[in-house]
Amino acid sequence: MAAITDAAELAALVDTMIPGDELFPSAAAVGTHGLVGPRLRQLLGRDGLARLSAALGPLAALDRGGRETAIARLESADPELFAAVRMTVYLSYYEQPAVVDAVRAMGHDYNDAPQPDGYALPPFDPDQDLPRRPRGAFVPTAEVRRVDLAALDFLQAGAR
Amino acid sequence: MPRHEPADVVIVGSGAAGAVCALVLAEAGIRTVCLEQGPWWRPEDYPHWGADWEWRRLTDWSTAVNTRRKAHDYPVDTTDENTLMWCGVGGSTTIYTATWPRFRPSDFRKGTEHGLAPDWPFTYEDLAPWYDASDALVGVSGILGDPSYPPRGPFQTRPLPPRRMGRWAQKAFDRLGWHWWPMPCAMIAEPFDGRPACNNCGACQNGCPRGSMHSASFTIWPKALAAGCELRTDARVERIETGADGRATGVTYVDRMSGVRHHQPAEVVIVAANGVGTPRLLLLSESAKHPHGLANSSDQVGRNLMHHVLGIAGLWVDGVTDVHAGVISAAQICCEFAETDPARGFVNGMTFHIVGQNGAGFQALGAHPGNVAPWGARHHAHFRSHFNHGIGFLLVGDDLPQPTNRVTLSLTSKDSSGLPAPHITYKLHENDKRLIRFAADRAREFAAAADAFDFKLNDFGLSSADGYRPPAWHLLGTARIGDDPANSVTNKWHQAWDCANLYVVDGSSMPSGAAVNPTSTITAMALRAASHLRDNFVDLRRATVTRRD
């Protein structure tokens, strides 16, 4: 029986979860499954992978509709296991260089990694970034008074 | 067992409070040894440099100790929460958000205000100079003039820019007529004290390998070491030893690298191991003189655990928000509901923070509220409409201290050295539930005022059958200061009632938790406590009685 550790099975899984479109490549096209396999092993352990294989069944031999049905069945039957798979697939996909390029192509300033470049740090602009009419208040220490708890019946037993 | 030369002071824990104590005492020429169970983390160890930074943030670099499962950590036995902390030089300042608001004057007077938490044994005004001094030590960005706080000392740098996210939020706050002000952050917007300004990378929840954020390993430890403090890493303290007279004589620790046990004698012991690690160690240190754990004759050690009652919302708007870039909490704080108003149906207050949402992968996962992009054919459409269009809205409420919310010793779980893990019980009080529901309604109002096209609230299970199970980052209240030995663990100078040469200085010292991030207050408290110990060291090193004054 095909295991989820097989490259073809992993590719079928990630491509069904994140197919491509006119801008974004499909998950398998950029090699996401190469990261997903070892990461699922890290996250789930061997037993977890076996459980996942059993829950999904063989995917690669199925058409898209069949794969979607299998993944939806996992999502419904074992939400925790599915969430681990989804986290792994999504994070592994969005770190792929071609996907970062697609995000940039949407017009966003987006780095491959946070450092070393970071992003521009414009100076704080008080004219724009402070309230025009500041509001707010605090109770000074000397003016802290006992509040009336009469209406808060649920608190009476615990007051001390 | 190797026995070291006696120290004047041994400090357990190198985080926000332990580092400050080490610096103050070492600079005064007091022979100080600090023991840290974790390692040094070098800048190159941080995830920021690689494309896998988001994966690492949720796995090996996770703030969740039970997710990391590293040998230098210890597991936390609980089903009530997801406990967050970091072990290593700098403690949890290594990967926090450096959000740096102060407590309010009324936060120190909850006993007077409603009696469901005790008054602190000192006031805001007593602590204010120490807030100013600790800010000067670590470097805080911000701007004076917030009318929702008393006048205060200077910030060290200008505020960080709020990004388009913050400017969008400002308009919503103004429409609602709610208070807002730039959030103070222990993240410098200009060079300060030899450290570079933030470069807006947006990965603050992984820490800061540049040293722009106040992490004690970058900001304080170099100075403490230069002053002569000895810091031993991978040194896990097993127990605080006490003599026949009940006074502390030092600590026993295991070198995690060799497995060899050591004894470090000291005239004074300071425990600064966080609100979970500190009560754990005190309970592990039981003896004939302290049969219920050290400093626990009042049965208060481990009780009154507070985390803040939390929710986090996300709203998505028809505009680019720069939500992946910039310091995560460097936008606004809203204190409109920070003071108690019983007409709301509960006591205590809350604050709202405008926060970022990390990178593309995490945003596809719905960011903190979990508004997940669907898998399959609709994935990219959701991503296109939501990525970099979000605004995070964090709800932080002041949870009541309850004696039943507590840290005890696990009967089943142990750390890599075989020591019992902490066990945590944490349930919300009805007051806390009412508070966070009120806050959630305000979040919905805010989303409407921001013209959001999508909104999602993560109440961490409050409204689910499984119940509230929060990320527990702020570890507070479990060895609190006070005026009365019957209901506190230490006096107002953090000196244990039961053991006059033992000090507890960290989040566990807090009698109440306020409605904001606690590290600025922990740091100020530590500076105050360590300075008092330094100034009175000749007497306090020999103290046999803990005084009330």
Short characterization:
The complex is a heterodimer of chains A (160) and B (549). Chain A is 49% helix and 0% strand.
Any overview of this molecule?
The complex is a heterodimer of chains A (160) and B (549). Chain A is an all-alpha fold and 160 residues long. Helices cover 49% and strands 0% of the residues of chain A. Chain A has a domain at 7-105. Chain A has helices at residues 7-17, 32-56, 64-77, 79-94, 97-105, 126-129. By secondary structure, chain B is of the alpha/beta class. Chain B folds into two domains: 1-36 and 65-139 and 214-308 and 402-427 and 471-549, FAD/NAD(P)-binding domain, CATH 3.50.50; 140-146 and 154-206 and 310-397 and 429-467, Cholesterol Oxidase, domain 2, CATH 3.30.410. In chain B, the strands form four sheets. In chain B, strands 1, 2, 5, 6, 7, 8 and 17 form a seven-stranded mixed β-sheet that branches. A six-stranded antiparallel β-sheet of chain B has the order 4-10-11-12-9-15, covered by helices on one side. At the A-B interface, helix 2, helix 4, helix 5 and helix 6 of A face helix 2, helix 6, strand 4, helix 10 and helix 11 of B.
The first-level CATH class name of the largest domain in chain B: Alpha Beta
Q: Could you state the CATH homologous superfamily of the largest domain in chain B?
A: FAD/NAD(P)-binding domain
Number of helices of chain A: 6
Main sheet summary of chain B: 7 strands, mixed
- What fraction of the residues of chain A are assigned to beta strands by DSSP? under 5%
Helix percent of chain B reads 10-25%
Q: Tell me the Rg of chain B in angstroms.
A: 22 Å
- The structure class of chain A reads mainly alpha
Whole-number average pLDDT of chain A? 94
Q: Give the helix proportion of chain A (percent range).
A: 40-55%
Radius of gyration of chain A: 26 Å
**Average pLDDT over all residues of chain B:** 97
